[in-house]
Amino acid sequence: MSTLIPTTDRWLREARLAGDATLRTEEMVLNIGPQHPATHGVLRVVVTLDGEKIVEGTPVVGYMHRGHEKLFEQRDFRQITNLCSRMDWLSGLNNEIPASIAVERLMELEVPRRATYLRVIMAEINRILNHLMFTGSFGLELGATTPVMYAFRERELLQSAMELATGGRLHFGFIRPGGLKEDVPRGFVDLALRGIRQLQKAIPDYEDLLMGNEIFKARTVGVGVLDPDLALEYGVSGPILRGSGIPYDVRKAEPYLNYDEFDFNIPVGTNGDSFDRYWVLIQEMKESAKIVEQALLDLPAGSHIGQVPKRLTIPKGAIWAKAENPLGELGYYIVSDGEAKPYRMKARTPSFNNISVVPHMLRGAYVPDMVAILGSMFFVVGDIDR
Amino acid sequence: MADALGNGYVQLGLKMSVLLILLPATLVLGWVELKIGAHMQARLGPMYPGGFHGWAQTLADGIKFVLKENIIPRNADRSVFALVPYVTMLGAALIFVVIPAGRNLVIEDLEVGVFYVLAASSVGVIGILMAGWSSANKYSLMGALRAAAQLIAYELPLVLAAAAVAMMAGSLSLVDIVEAQKSIEIAGFYIPFLPFQIVGFIIFLTAATAELTRPPFDMPVAEAELITGAFTEYTGIRFAFSLFAAEYISMIGLAAFGATLFLGGYAPPHSALEFIPGIVWLLLKTLTILFLLIWVRWTYPRLREDQLQKFAWKFLIPLSLVNIFATGALKLTPWI
Question: I need a labelling partner for A359 at 20 to 30 A (CA). Which of A131, A178, B102, B197 fits?
């Protein structure tokens, strides 16, 4: 009945006959995913193992391909911003922003100052929500079940603030070319401020709970080191690139919206290991909280949307617009042939590039390290496959 | 009392009752762990089943497990696969045979009690190894091999920590060990071995956690990477028995063992409290150790297997040897 116990194998019989105590060992191919807790989503990683050591690990993507780029071609520009938020479902609002910026630049639309401020506020709140999720789930992958619960506690107030304004908790659909869908309701500023204050109070707890923990350090320091040159070659961006010590952030490098008016820093790691990437994430939450606080406190009055024609027909041309998504650089290349729908719209999503560098990091790591590496690469499968 | 215990039927009844108590005890402990864990994580935990704070949650879980389909993979080694729950549970349940709940309230006061508990508690790992090998699953195999490696690393510090206590008491019998702790008395207060064996106690707790494959040493069952390791292919009641029941029974067993060795077992803290039955004190002390185990579980991330081996061989074993040496030196002083 048993086929796993290879008593019929020739090599074993021969080894027994010869009285030879040394057994032949061989590499084992282990198929991790697409349904596996470490890959949170439907990423598949095929690893070749020598004992517990990974000889070769290859991510296989495409299990969640939904043909977004083709769908864009069938949509009006107002619908496109909504569709974008389905790509990286953890940071829907951040996906919408560059799409509408592209349209605004092509049509030369004026965005009111209040709308710009609110976009910044919501984008940063969304960034915090995303980062909280990843800091929590990273702990979960290393076996610490508590950080994720704390993270969800802090998410709740900010999530409610977003819900109050947009009506959505995941897919906000709040950005329109030229401004916002509507103005924020009364109470939004207070609720968002309360959420930010609670977060600022809670962040030291996260730092103590994991970053001060010897086991956490043992599992992450020096694990999954990403060489900065390699990162640049693969087009890695976002917290992962900054964890490797390269201070590239679209918000500073090529400011969009009005990020240049706020005071914030770009946290940069030193070693490029899992610990540094996690550290960058925590620090970025602090910086985002700072931005939200500044923006909320001098939120200008005015209209939430500029002069936008009823029918969005975009002049012939092409444009590349990018923004700093929580996970990295997100860009859209839109080619318009002068109609209501784009002729072609390409999305450059951060997770796709970030995950391509993983084989280099997996080589020579142990199986538990794989979890630490994948967990600190902060990817969303919908963002890889879109 | 001693005469009644001599009666064969009473003895048989006692022995049966231990086994009958164990399964409900796992349900209670499971619920306690859910609640403690939830409150540590700013949650409420189960609130609905049964009414009061979801007391029937684990019972409902148990019923669900019974009703689930029992799947045996086609390539599995059927007989070994089916035997696993019995082996893991047996090893865990055997510990209770020698744990004394009173001066005479013990199923068998074995001369080699300490040795017996340590031997019985490691039988469970054979069950894990059987599960991993018979499931015909790569994840299970890796989990089983990790469990075996872990056993070798952690059995030694556990034995050495217990050995230091046996040196203190001058006996391997658990009843004698408790009586030895009762003999250290200051103004009516019984002083357990804990203050003299604080290092040994910490080593014991660490090694017991590893032996139970609980976080932070739960690499053999690591959900995030091996998907409950050796028990990936188990379903239904087999899963519940081989994973949950075995884990909780051996948790209670090792905690009771630790309470007996270090906290004075059934001995009350003060001679004036002798009227309260010993089983109450044993239960209280066992629960204290259980709480420590649960606390650690909900706080720490998981170590890596090689890091655990390094920690065991390079730190814990030398430390427990030093502890034994210190205990020997202590025995030479006139106070003990």
Answer: A131
Confidence label for A257 from pLDDT (cuts 50, 70 and 90): confident
CB nearest to A37's CB, from B218, B227, B304: B227
The CATH T-level fold of domain A66-353 is Cytochrome-c3 Hydrogenase; chain B (1.10.645)
Q: Over the stretch A7-34, which tens digit does the pLDDT of each residue have?
A: 456 666 666 666 655 666 777 888 887 8
Specify the 3-state DSSP secondary structure of A50. strand
Please classify residue B276 by burial: count the beta carbons closer than 10 Å to its beta carbon, then call 0-12 exposed, 13-18 middle and 19+ buried.
Answer: exposed
Same domain, B156 and B178: yes
Q: Inter-chain contact B75–A3, Cβ cutoff 8 Å?
A: yes
What is the extent of the structural domain holding B188? 68-331
Are B48 and B118 within one domain? Answer: no
The reply to whether B47 and B129 lie within a common domain is no
pTM above 0.95, yes or no: no
Option in B142, B218, B224 nearest A37 (CB): B224
Nearest-angstrom CA–CA distance, A270 and A245: 5
Domain boundaries, chain A: 66-353
Q: Which residues of A touch B306 (CB under 8 A)?
A: 52, 366
B240-265: b (≥16 Cβ within 10 Å) or e: bbbbbbbbbbbbbbbbbbbbbbbbbb
Please check whether residue B296 touches A, CB under 8 A: no
**What is the tally of structural domains in chain B?**
2
Peptide bond into A98 cis (omega under 30): no
**Same structural domain, B191 and B55:** no
Of the candidates A141, A143, A213, the beta carbon closest to that of B215 is on A143
Do B92 and B162 lie in one domain? The reply is: yes
What is the ipTM metric for this complex?
0.76
Distance in angstroms (rounded) separating the CA atoms of residues A132 and A200: 12
Nearest residue of chain B to residue A146 (CA atoms): B41
Burial class, B90, CB count within 10 angstroms (exposed 0-12 / middle 13-18 / buried 19+): middle
Nearest chain A residue to B40 by CA distance is A146
Give the integer Cα–Cα distance in Å for B220 and B212: 10
Instruction: Spell out the residues 6+ positions from residue B163 whose beta carbon is closer than 8 angstroms to its own.
Output: B114, B324
Instruction: Let me know if A283 is exposed, middle or buried by CB neighbors in 10 A (0-12, 13-18, 19+).
Output: buried
Q: Contacts of residue A144 in chain B, CB cutoff 8 Å?
A: 299-302
Give the gap in angstroms from C-alpha B82 to the nearest C-alpha of chain A: 13
pLDDT digits (tens, 9 = 90+) for B70-112: 888 888 888 888 888 888 888 788 888 788 877 777 777 778 8
